[in-house]
Amino acid sequence: MYKTVLLVSLLLATTMVCGQSRKYNLGRTPTSQEVQTRDISISPTGEGLPPGQGSAKDGRSLYLAQCASCHGVRGEGRPGNPPVAGGQGTLKSDKPSTTVGSYWPYATTVWDYINRAMPYQQPGSLSPDDVYSITAYVLYLNGIAGENEVLNAKTLPKIVMPNRDGFVPDPRPDTKAAKH
After folding, report:
1. Is 40 within a domain?
2. What are the φ and ψ backbone dihedral angles of 132, each rounded to 5 degrees?
3. Minimal CA–CA distance to 141: which of 41, 63, 33, 49?
4. Which of 14, 26, 39, 42 has the greatest number of CB atoms lying within 10 Å of its CB?
5. How many helices (H) and strands (E) does the chain have?
6. More confident residue, 45 or 38
7. Which pLDDT belongs to residue 29?
């Protein structure tokens, strides 16, 4: 037992020392174009949204091709992958479901998340039109947007999410309250 504890301690110490070295020999420095594609901030008011547009009707086939294998055909989720639809009214229950339709306060943050992080295998690979279309489809699955409703930088921020008022400003003095 003592030898096992000693061996584990040595391995942990070695890992910590090696893990803190300056040379990891992993990855590479991103190109300026790669940094630029991820250097965006989308506010709740829509500031920072790029030109483009899409509807749920446009987004259905994109969602089925890019999202359904993880999030389900109707947004119900799959093992190990969260649902993106449903869950309205569950946040105060014993089993809250934090989906786009129940939890997210702003439609613009849905767009931002899809743009930055999806699809999981190739984040950031979707065009702005694709992101608007998939966002519209996810909102449609939640009964928030109409099938033919066109979303763009002007219309997306106007969508009132079911949980928009479910968050409270951060009262700590070292933070700025979010402006709606």
Report:
1. no
2. -60, -40
3. 63
4. 42
5. 6, 2
6. 45
7. 86
On whether residue 56 sits in a domain, the answer given is no
Q: Domain tally for the chain? A: 1
Q: Can you give the CATH number for the domain in which 112 is found? A: 1.10.760.10
In this prediction, residues 113-125 reach a mean pLDDT of 94
Locate 143 and state its tokens: 């009964």
When pLDDT is averaged across residues 97-110 and rounded to a whole number, the result is 96
HEC string of the chain? CHHHHHHHHHHHHHHHHHHCCCCCCCCCCCCHHHHHHHCCCCCCCCCCCCCCEECHHHHHHHHHHHCHHHHCCCCCCECCECCCCCCCCCCCCCCCCCCCCCCCCEHHHHHHHHHHHCCCCCCCCCCHHHHHHHHHHHHHHCCCCCCCCCEECCCHHHCECCCHHHCCCCCCCCCCCCCC
Place of tokens 């939640």: 142
> Across the strands, what pairs with 80?
none
Give, for 76, the enclosing helix (H) or strand (E). none
